[in-house]
Amino acid sequence: MPEGVPGAGDQEVGWRLDRRAWHQGYATEAARAALDVGLNRLGLPVIWSMTAVINLPSQAVMQRLGMVRHGLFDHPRIELEHPLRPHVVYRIEQPANS
Q1: Does 6 reside within a domain?
Q2: Is residue 6 classed as helix, strand or coil in its secondary structure?
Q3: From CA 10, how far away is CA 45, in angstroms rounded?
Q4: Of 36, 47, 81, 86, which residue has the fewest beta carbons closer than 10 angstroms?
Q5: 1 in a domain, yes or no?
């Protein structure tokens, strides 16, 4: 995660797909595999994901992955008053029995 946002310095999972690939399950499938590597194989304690508040499809992916909403923040790299500045951040932690 970049400086100035919740989870700064920790690992982030994210996705950016061509519009033709939206709503096909690719983001969820790829992110699930990335989380498996990060949490189960590398033993990372936490992985974060963030998106603009208005990006409801990405928030739905985060929820399907079992990520928990951590909070809201204004992204420091997006100009004031821009509609993408308000962001939401989700996180998932290493399973307790690992």
Answers
A1: no
A2: coil
A3: 9
A4: 81
A5: no
